[in-house]
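Changelog-linked ticket: thymidine-5'-triphosphate example.
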Amino acid sequence: MNRIILASASPRRKELLKQIGIEYEVIPCQKEEKMTKSLPYEIVQELSYQKAEEVCSLLTKQGEEAFTVIGADTVVSFMDMVMGKPKSGEDACEMLNRLQGNVHQVYTGVTICSKERNEPAIFYTFYEKTDVSMYPMSSEEVCAYVESGEPMDKAGAYGIQGRCAAYIQGICGDYNNVVGLPVGRLYQEMKTRNLL
Ligand SMILES: Cc1cn([C@H]2C[C@H](O)[C@@H](COP(=O)(O)OP(=O)(O)OP(=O)(O)O)O2)c(=O)[nH]c1=O
């Protein structure tokens, strides 16, 4: 089996990959991704590709001949808005004021880059969508949650796995997809392609 590299600095993605028993190393991306698409399922696939591609190029420059790289990206989509990580506390409050009491979608795009000795790298990209329904939050509750600091490194300014669980009414789809990596689908995609 080739080396498996997770192209991510996200502690949640590391934890999820570990949970399914995959042995891997981490090489986080350094570059700022460039978004050229506008639909959420296109954005997450494009950005996950860029993350996997950056680490694939780095390894190739280092003379590595065979490896598998996994890149992922998550956004929240509500009505016609696409939300990444909040830029400020104010931004986080705005996002949560929109999401509370409503149903939104979480999209995670994943790119698997597979490189074999003397072969060009092959890229596989897919996405998963999960619907998340939230209970209403008062503006005081939104402020208190933002002040906890939890929203700042998370798409849509909340963590379903953290304190925000108090406001989650239900989901339709893969829970792990909301946390940042749809490991069930990822495992199956890797198994189908003999990458495990
Ligand atoms: C909606 C939601 C998102 N998130 C996280 C998952 C992602 O880590 C983050 C979205 O940011 P991303 O830009 O997808 O990823 P990242 O910057 O954390 O990590 P990297 O680019 O190095 O891989 O939001 C949660 O942890 N819980 C949630 O409920």
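Closing comment: Example verified and attached. The pocket of thymidine-5'-triphosphate is lined by residues 8-10, 12-13, 28-29, 51, 72-74, 76, 85, 106, 153-156, 158-161, 178-180 (CB under 6 Å). The chain has a mean pLDDT of 97.
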